Amino acid sequence: xxxxxxxxxxxxxxxxxxxxxxxxxxxxxxxxxxxxxxxxxxxxxxxxxxxxxxxxxxxxxxxxxxxxxxxxxxxxxxxxxxxxxxxxxxxxxxxxxxxxxxxxxxxxxxxxxxxxxxxxxxxxxxxxxxxxxxxxxxxxxxxxxxxxxxxxxxxxxxxxxxxxxxxxxxxxxxxxxxxxxxxxxxxxxxxxxxxxxxxxxxxxxxxxxxxxxxxxxxxxxxxxxxxxxxxxxxxxxxxxxxxxxxxxxxxxxxxxxxxxxxxxxxxxxxxxxxxxxxxxxxxxxxxxxxxxxxxxxxxxxxxxxxxxxxxxxxxxxxxxxxxxxxxxxxxxxxxxxxxxxxxxxxxxxxxxxxxxxxxxxxxxxxxxxxxxxxxxxxxxxxxxxxxxxxxxxxxxxxxxxxxxxxxxxxxxxxxxxxxxxxxxxxxxxxxxxxxxxxxxxxxxxxxxxxxxxxxxxxxxxxxxxxxxxxxxxxxxxxxxxxxxxxxxxxxxx
Length: 493
Fold this sequence. Notes:
By secondary structure, the protein is an alpha/beta fold. It has helices at 36-65, 73-88, 100-125, 133-164, 175-187, 222-232, 249-258, 301-321, 323-337, 368-373, 385-393, 400-406, 419-428, 445-448, 457-469, 473-485, and strands spanning 167-172, 193-199, 218-219, 236-239, 262-267, 284-286, 289-294, 342-348, 354-360, 410-412, 441-443.
């Protein structure tokens, strides 16, 4: 893989940070991280309560208004339609300021849709059980009202529980917005969020404590934030600036997401814009601030399972189909450059995990230090004619199909880089580290847009993050099709 010829910034000295005491939990000893089972209950418990309220309302309306001869299998069919519709509409998402009244239009619309579908299905499949427009109107109205009442009871119960047992929360940011958000959480316990630390990656420890509140410890970065998360069993985090514009924002996001924390971004006067991570999410509010739920768009277990299955199938077929070509490449390298046709090099994969990448050897580094830290260029005089041909046609990348089959890589994703340069580029280019949220790939969106060879690292990172934020299996298929169309186009990757 040829690289840019621009100079790489040198590694700066590490900055020591001072440890700060964090607030202990209000109740219980609990200095250790919450067990996985309790984190699962906290994540899915609220949705289960709303699901039960909706199901009970649907069953009650069916029992009161449906004809006595109507079989209960119709109720099961109604629930099988209505509850997924509620989920698709986002009515089971956790909210900071839930309101059953604001959800009433959505509940009424979905109830009308459900009962209209039931009326039409019965009219065709079981005319003797048909229901009229009057029953439909009464049933939809009653079901919407009962659903709203049940949800209001759930929200009220949840609010009282939040006041009694608030969840430990970190505020991430600096300046007046961070102080205002912290004050709002202190003054309004009904949100159920108790600030236990202010994460200020910029290192501003001069923020004054709010009058009447206990001093809030200021944490300098991911290391201290990690300690606070564990010691306080932190469950929520509130960002006061977009993750990508926050120093160490990607590292903090990954840390908090890995601990199962729910994250929010507040926007308002003086706050930042909506990030890609919250695109498509319904905004909430936190005492006048607009609050956007932050989530890792790459956490899609079913989609990733399908992506992995596609990788395994296509990589296995590719190794079989390309075996004659790979054999010819190996023979050409052996005859031209001597023994050792496979070149092995450590690269950084998903979540920063290292792995050994395989390529056909196009030049022989002087030593391991040069292999790990030298920024190769296409004009290196040690590259033979065979090696130059392999690079220009990207045939030197074919052994990476084995990396894909092993699970080190995916067919489509950000191109992997060596640890030395990952550290350099992460300091020089905001958002570069963020590209390790997805498995690295044999090809990627940046490569099919011409960012191969001696091109901008900043632009590559921008395309890689764009790919991650909009990832889908269809996009993978499009990238693979465009890669196949330009496989023998000169330029190298």
